[in-house]
Design brief:
With 165 residues, this protein is α+β, with helices and mostly antiparallel strands. The protein contains three helices and six strands, in the order ααββαββββ.
Length: 165
């Protein structure tokens, strides 16, 4: 019963792959410094003032699957958290003038929970929400990662926004 109640506390975003994304991977590359194999958000499908929804298609060709684990490929948890954080970075950066001139860096990661394995063929949906306004270049966020209707991971994180030199 408790598991069923918890399952409905956080609802998965609705994703229609036929809809045009708000940001494609080209725009994401303009905002984030990450490149292959570390760019972990493929597109952004929705964004509001305090939330963002992103997508990552997990394929068998991901380089981390070579060693994690060859006989039973599983996406490393640290990369799941990184992907949620990249999505949050896109949210914060999109609110700045000249977002291409800024970067975000982890300051803190809390309350990380992994609820289910992420494997090749999964489509990950990220929902990241600001926990409050950005103050003094510091932003706190809560991220959820879904496969279908199931929360597979969640985390709270704090990031610093720094102007590039």
């Amino acid at each position: 019963m408790r598991k069923e109640i918890r399952k409905h506390e956080v609802q998965a975003p609705i994703y229609d792959p036929n809809e045009e994304p708000l940001m494609d991977n080209i725009r994401i590359r303009e905002l984030l410094p990450h490149r292959y194999p570390m760019q972990l958000v493929d597109k952004v499908i929705a964004m509001g003032a305090t939330s963002i929804i992103g997508v990552k298609n997990v394929t068998n060709n991901e380089p981390f699957f070579q060693g994690h684990f060859p006989q039973e490929p599983v996406m490393p948890g640290v990369l799941q958290v990184e992907a949620m954080a990249q999505c949050g970075g896109l949210l914060v950066l999109s609110q700045l003038e000249e977002p291409e001139r800024w970067s975000t860096y982890f300051l803190k990661i809390d309350n990380v929970k992994f609820r289910q394995k992420v494997v090749p063929g999964d489509t990950l949906l990220f929902r990241v929400e600001l926990l409050g306004p950005v103050r003094h270049g510091i932003s706190s966020m809560k991220g959820y990662m879904f496969v279908g209707d199931h929360v597979v991971a969640e985390a709270s994180f704090t990031a610093q926004i720094v102007k590039n030199k």
